[in-house]
Amino acid sequence: MTQIEKRYDFVLIYDVQDGNPNGDPDAGNLPRVDAENGMGLVTDVCLKRKVRNYVTIVKNCQRPYDIFVKEKAVLNSLIDEAHEDKTVKSKEKKEDKIEAARLWMCENYYDIRTFGAVLNTGKKAGQVRGPVQLTFSRSLEPVVALEHSITRMAVATEKEAESQSGENRTMGRKYTIPYGVYMAHGFVSAHLAAQTGFSQDDLDLFWNALENMFEHDHSAARGLMTTRKLIIFEHSSPLGNKPAQELFDRIKWERTTDGPARSFNDYRIMLDGEVIEGTKKIVQVQ
Q: Per its UniProt record, what InterPro entries does this chain match (predicted)?
């Protein structure tokens, strides 16, 4: 596979309509917000989960595109499996076995060679620093979390049915954001890609995941979520040509309407003062 020889910085812009993009389990699953200014937040872990799910659908967990962190996975068992490989077993020193196991895990699991992982449990396979890193997403403007009462016309047990005097109604709560546009920033390191074996094919798959992951993640709770813009800054060398923040500052936004925003048409996203056309744009950095 082709090795990555360039550094990349990127900006992902997506929106949510009538949904909860990332509930906080410590706050009753309320949408995450910055307590000081009301800006909506989505964790990097949330986006990585969607990337993993997309790769699972596209590659069907076939190695070398298997997913390490997935539902019901027993992580220690997967690490122990690496130590059953003949190359790993042939190593005599403990540290050599761990290093060989780390390389085996990178080779077989897409999310490890992409995002990295701590593999110091079970028989251990060291620690992997992933070449792809994401920040928290932050909404362009403050968001308002709405609380909705909902009912379920059924009960789980006969005892519950008797206690409700024949009315099989269970009350609940649901939280949504009417509308919000979120922006996340990301980085791809050519140096770390060489250490994990993250290839150009892996990178192309990652870009596809960012563009299409919401199309395969629909649910009533998340409402309507869509990738609107993916701006990729491609440097001409592994070390890069300019600081990431200087590139990110080239992206500006402005409102096209007054009052509360309710659609992406209420915003204009610009690069160097010009409106960005299409969903994906690759910018060469010299």
A: Cas7_Csh2/Csh2, CRISPR-assoc_prot_Cas7/Csd2
